[in-house]
């Protein structure tokens, strides 16, 4: 049987949750990404800006 306490002890430290942008900010981001996609300018670098891993500061 798996010992949950031992699993928790060995688990890496979790990073703090990053709050989601407001609904208005989410709508603005979606509109910006759609406009870039329509122009053929949506690149992996732009997607990384919004969906990439956050670096610890």
Features:
single chain, 57 residues, mainly alpha, 3 helices, elongated
Walk me through what this model shows:
The chain is mainly alpha-helical. The chain has helices at about 5-10, 25-40, 45-50. Helix content is about 55%, strand content about 0%.
Strand proportion, as a percent range, falls in: under 5%
Helical fraction equals 40-55%
Total of DSSP H or I helical runs spanning 4+ residues: 3
Give the averaged pLDDT, no decimals.
83
What profile does the largest beta sheet have? none
Along the chain, the helix and strand elements come as: HHH
Rg, nearest Å: 18 Å
Dominant shape: elongated
How are the elements arranged and paired?
Layout: H1 4-10, H2 23-38, H3 44-51
Gist?
This protein has helices spanning 4-10, 23-38, 44-51. The chain is mostly helical.
